[in-house]
Predict the structure.
Amino acid sequence: MAAKKDHGDTIVLDICTEYVKAGWAGEDTPLCRVPAIMVSSANEDEKGQSFMVGHKALEWLVSRHKEGKDTDDLKIVYPIKEGRVEDWEAMTELLRNVFVNEMKVGSHPNCTVMLTDTPMTTEEYRIQFCRVLFSEFRIPSLCIANRGTMALFDSGRSTGVALVSAGDISHAVPVYKGFCLPHATICSKLGGKSVTEILKEGLKRLEIKEASLPAWEPIMEDVREKACFTVQMKAKKSLLEKFVGHKEDERFRHIQLETFLNPTKLEVKVDQRVKKNEAQKEVKKRHKRHLEKLSLTLVKESKNKMKRGFESVLQGEKKRLNLDDSMLYELPKGADGEIISVCDLLRYVSSEALFSPHSIVGNEESMLGLQDLLFKSIKMCDTYLQPLLSSNIVAAGELVEMPGFAQRLEEELYHLVDEMFRDKLQVSLIPALRRRDACWRGGSMFATIPTFSNIKFSRESFQEDEKMASKRYF
């Protein structure tokens, strides 16, 4: 059993698409970051196990690759999608692994749990999470808080807007005096996995054919974190116009935002209705075709050795960001491993999807650039709140630590406010270190203040009234 903490026995759980982060309240960093994955097989291994979760699941996959064994017999499950649990059975096993093997508190921890929840979840979803924690693990009490609110709390603010990016989704969460404004909380289906998808498609055509296999997903995520970077706006314009082969569709972006600010434009409203009625399968097919076209262009330009001046632009950006001249990555493949080189174009283009999705992955309505996501969220709030929110912007998640990300986001916001809409808002992105764990750390801080005791609810009170999951939601 883990040693009891002087500041109380509260476990903080931060649930996002790629990881489950867990640790003790009052600490500065989580004790563990467990990959949100379960791998099962029809046959038991030498220890009599038919499934593994978290780190052991990844190690199992990597060992199978090293030994040259086929992984077709394995079922790979990612229980969390878009920040929400979709496979509760796999999630229960993942949480059991966290409590027993990582936190060392046993399968029925006598500890309060502070749970950070993805923005925009439903009451039914939160009730289901409460049922799992109270019934399966018999915890005595629980508190559920919005991840965006906790990210802002970590920065020492109670008013502002948080950009929370995790896995395959990003949320803009405006907060006023410690309370989330749900009517202005919006999301975009862009995140780290969007970058990884482009990276996989490019590497598949440039270097390794296995890059698109499901078992290689964790490896590609590691390549993304170590390789990708973001360039300044002035460099972006020249690179996009020359490399992608067409100018960024600024008109499409402008119309989307202008329609939101002035919804009386019938022409645009008709266009949006057509897009909404479009079959989801057609959207996925178009998205796949766009990625294939993009990767083919990557191959062509790599063979041309960037003759059209891209090399000098990217070299200048790498020097500005103090990045290594070349990106070498060792793959867990074969007995001695295999080292590949990730070309600069792929390192840049993959991350550009976060700000220019219309140019990189096509005009998908659900994929709003991160700068547009923030701007739209702020404009959905009352006029007197907008200056307070725009001057207190906090970004949280793995993507925020990408080289050049924070500066580029602030540049894009200034461009939106000053040039596109001539707005008088003052934009300020709060600088901070270690933003990767901001949501968890905010929850860790929140669990140590007196307010926490008033908001958490017991197992008995939940059994009497399941709506407690929403009544006490912070």
